[in-house]
Amino acid sequence: MLKTSPILKTSPMLSSGRWLLLAGMVPALVLIAALLYFTFWAFSFSFTDLELVGRKSVEWSWVGLDNYERLFTRRGFLEALWTTGIFVFFSAIVGQSVIGFVLAAALRNDNSGVRPVLEVAIMLGWLLPDIVAAFLWSATTSETGLINALIVVPLGFEPINFINSYALPVVIVANIWKGTAWSYLLFSAALDAVPREVVEAAKVDGATPLQRVWRVILPMIRPHIATNLLFITIWTFTYFPLIYAMTGGGPGRQTTVLAIFLYDQSFSIGKLGYGSAISVAMLAIVGVLSLFYLRMLREPK
Amino acid sequence: MGPNATASRVNALMLAFVAIIWVSPFAWLILNAFNPAATGRLVLPQTIGLDNFADALSGNAGRQFINSIILAAGTATLTVVVAIAAAYPLSRLNIPGRNAFLWSLVLLRMLPATGVIVPLYFTARNTGLLNTGGVIVALTILNLPFTLLLMKNFFDTVPIELEEAAFVEGASLWQIIRRIVLPLSRAGIAVVWFFSFTGAWNEFLLPLIFARTESGFPMSVGLYAAFGQQGAIQYGFLAAFSIVYAAPAVGVYFLLRRNMNTGFAGVGVKG
């Protein structure tokens, strides 16, 4: 307070243009207020039977907690939650984080010339628009695609339509391919910050390479791990375009994650009230997960 | 040195294997895009031609390219203008409740867009904004908390002494902002502009809900519609379309790589 308050009083420049400055803030305040209003509105909609078209799009009524009850009593939500859990766990936590870490560790001491190629390829995956990645992986895993042409057919098997037979693993692999760059960059920076002497000392004391990673390096980069998990979990949990463009949630409901379930219920079936309840539930889950990771970030060790 | 050399050779071999996995989809993409007779198979083209790129830039596809430019540039410009207008006063004036406001922006930033998609759609429908204009406004609203925080931190690093010196020389506040503040924070503004640009360029869900006709689609929805709904897949066209679509997003990053590091340092709230 002491540092900033004199500026307002002593600077005639700012007080002369005070109204201009305050007027400049109005558009932003209006838009932020709109965002708050929409958030509140989504919450309110979740207690109504509002629909996209038809009579109930105008004459909707309050239905209390019906929509929330439906989350647990009707088929769909819990299934989608389970699918989302699998998708997040394998593509973000196991895939992107672990592969990102292993690559960051392996590439640090590499001078064979693979590093620049791999780094650019990983970054390209990350920078590519979601739908381009979806197209690439649909084509790669199709019956005439890359994997069949290079691996399956030469080994003497019939070509496999991967998206039909293994939809969830395919979207998980595609998401790992697309998203590992973030974890890789974060862990590269984290490993740069680990002092060499500490690792060398552990080596002298007779720690095996695995022990060095597990007991020395990982505890030291714990805050980075928590930050990484926080962001990729939130992103992956609400991720929509890649999966939707590749499978549309199918075949059947095999790849219907929560974001796709929300989209289907709201805009294909048209139950906007139920859709809002799904989005509130998603927000709550994301909130709980964030708190969990933030605690992990704070906890001293 | 014996076991060490073996270990590093195994390491290099493993990395090369990973590199092949990561690179091969791109190789496939390029081979098909430049092959006028592409079938989606991995073959070296008999003839190399730009026919696919010509297709990807004409007709509906060309129209969608322009739509994407309008959508992305419109969102980026609107976001940056609104953010600058609010971030400068937030940085310079000691407004009561400022810190509480900035912290609420941090919380709003965490909000996933899917959470407000239903009200956004409903509002756009009731106000006749189910078009590119509506997507621009909606994306600006969603971008604003993050952009505002970023711009406020940029302005915090511009020394106020320069502005006061200019004021003593007789410059008006408007002149000071135009001639001193904006030029000094040009790098920061560029980063924020391109950041919003790529975000809007990649955006899929909002245009999918808001856009009604094929000629009104941006490239994200256009590409989705082209490979999702056609019976016979035109791999050459789709590959070229993908490259055209991906190029700006990828190019902007490598163009701004150096600025990124300085630009994104310290995105927290400072009192």
UniProtKB/TrEMBL annotation, chain A:
Keyword NAD: no
Source organism, top-level taxon: Bacteria
SUPFAM superfamilies documented for this protein: MetI-like
CDD domains: TM_PBP2
Domain ABC transmembrane type-1: from-to ranges: 82-295
InterPro entries, sorted: MetI-like, MetI-like_sf
Database matches in Gene3D superfamilies: MetI-like
Transmembrane region(s): 20-43, 80-105, 117-139, 159-177, 225-246, 272-294
Keyword Acetylation: no
Subcellular location: Cell membrane
Family matches, as Pfam families: BPD_transp_1
Keywords per UniProt: Cell membrane, Membrane, Transmembrane, Transmembrane helix, Transport
Protein name: Amino acid ABC transporter permease
Organism placement in taxonomy: Bacteria, Pseudomonadati, Pseudomonadota, Alphaproteobacteria, Hyphomicrobiales
Automatic annotation (TrEMBL), chain B:
Span of domain ABC transmembrane type-1: 65-256
Membrane topology: Multi-pass membrane protein
PROSITE patterns in the record: ABC_TM1
Annotated InterPro entries: BP-dep_ABC_trans_perm, MetI-like, MetI-like_sf
Cell compartment(s), UniProt: Cell membrane
Keywords: Cell membrane, Membrane, Transmembrane, Transmembrane helix, Transport
Transmembrane segments: 12-31, 65-88, 100-122, 128-150, 187-212, 232-256
The keyword Transmembrane helix is annotated on this UniProt entry: yes
Similarity section: Belongs to the binding-protein-dependent transport system permease family.
Protein name listed in UniProt: Sugar ABC transporter permease
Species of provenance: Devosia nitrariae
